[in-house]
Amino acid sequence: MSGVAVQVRGLSRAHRKVGRVIEVLRAVDLDLAPGDRLAVVGPSGSGKSTLLHMIGLLDRPTSGEIVLDGRPVSKMGAAERAQVRNRTVGFVFQAHLLLPEHSALGNVAMPVLLAGGSHSVANARAEALLRAVGLGDRLHHRPGELSGGEQQRVALARALVMGPGLVLADEPTGNLDPGTAGGVFDLMVQLNVQLGSTLVVVTHSRELADRFPRRLLLADGRLRELDAP
Predict the structure, then answer these.
(1) What is the pTM of this model?
(2) CA Rg value for the chain
């Protein structure tokens, strides 16, 4: 795995609601080198998730450009965007979105199988990552048999199983108690350092954000650097 360089230029996103135009993002610029770790904080509704979804090719900007490893992606067609997203980006969401009928191993192996990988390769990758996140003894447990923190660690392993160069996490610990949240957060950073991926985390917690070498505040549709903790 190698980290993805990210360039965002003049990124804007607006919604029309009841005859009004609501600007969520206003000409946002952002540069990330391969392997960078960034936390984005901001008030609820400030557009943090919108920014993450556009960088991860889940949404399109109203204007502006996103470049991943020198490749402009904002104006790609749906099929090409999906291909780049599946090969390049790993997502971790606040809701873990695990498949309840599958074991931890089955959930983590699923992206590899959907990409055409064999069961042996998918299971080997999944097991290695589940052991890396401390769930080697929970491989065959279903989500309902796991704690909230364990479920989120399964979701983290699933996000990494395809070897993405860019990992995007949207309030990944928002549903966890503070102690569990801190452990999951630290694990995410540790794996990022080991694997060399570029990591962007959206969080409402300044305390968790302060564990990152770089922090940005998103407010009034614009990004600005935060002072060091």
Answers:
(1) 0.90
(2) 17
